[in-house]
Design goal:
The protein is of the alpha/beta class. The protein folds into two domains: 71 residues, Helix Hairpins; 80 residues, Chitinase A, domain 3, CATH 3.10.50. The chain has three helices and seven strands, in the order βααββββαββ. Strand 3 and strand 4 form a beta hairpin. The longest helix is centred in the first third of the chain and has 29 residues.
């Protein structure tokens, strides 16, 4: 089975969400029981809402358990610093044309959040950066055209 890369922080976040969802199980079961007591289940909106909530929670629990089971957790802070961009590293890059500097951490698909600087390893920018070193200039094809970035610094944090 295919293993999916994930940072230690990403695995912790999923484990925390799983813990919260499992803690909600008794509350959902209680809501179903209370709704059942209200009578006819065919026209019982509370019952159907509670059952739907239960279905969504159980689906998410199975999804998280599957992701964690197939995760290859990578702790970049334990790897030797070579100056190369690898999964989990934090990279400072500068747009060659505009001198705009941005910082990204290369993370797994599930962890990606561009607003917080977490870039999916399968994104065009990350694919262009991985394997390159500090000082290299990379070319990225974007929907708005070709953009060149210089790698300023690679950090293992």
């Amino acid at each position: 089975m295919t293993k999916y890369p994930m940072t230690v922080q990403g695995a912790r976040a999923l484990e925390e969400e799983l813990k919260i969802l499992k803690a909600e199980r008794p509350k959902i079961s209680q809501a179903i029981a209370e709704a059942r007591e209200l009578g006819d289940l065919k026209e019982n909106a509370e019952y159907h809402a509670a059952r739907e909530q239960q279905g969504l929670a159980e689906a998410r629990i199975r999804d998280i358990e599957g992701r964690l089971q197939n995760a290859q957790i990578i702790d970049v802070s334990t790897l030797p610093h070579t100056g190369k961009v690898i999964f989990g590293t934090t990279v400072d890059i500068v747009n060659v044309e505009t001198d705009e500097e941005v910082t990204y951490q290369i993370v797994g698909d599930d962890e990606a959040d561009i607003k917080s600087g977490k870039l999916s390893v399968s994104s065009p920018i990350a694919r262009a950066l991985v394997g390159k070193s500090e000082g290299d200039v990379v070319t990225v094809r974007t929907p708005s055209g070709v953009v060149e970035y210089e790698i300023v610094e690679v950090r293992h944090v």
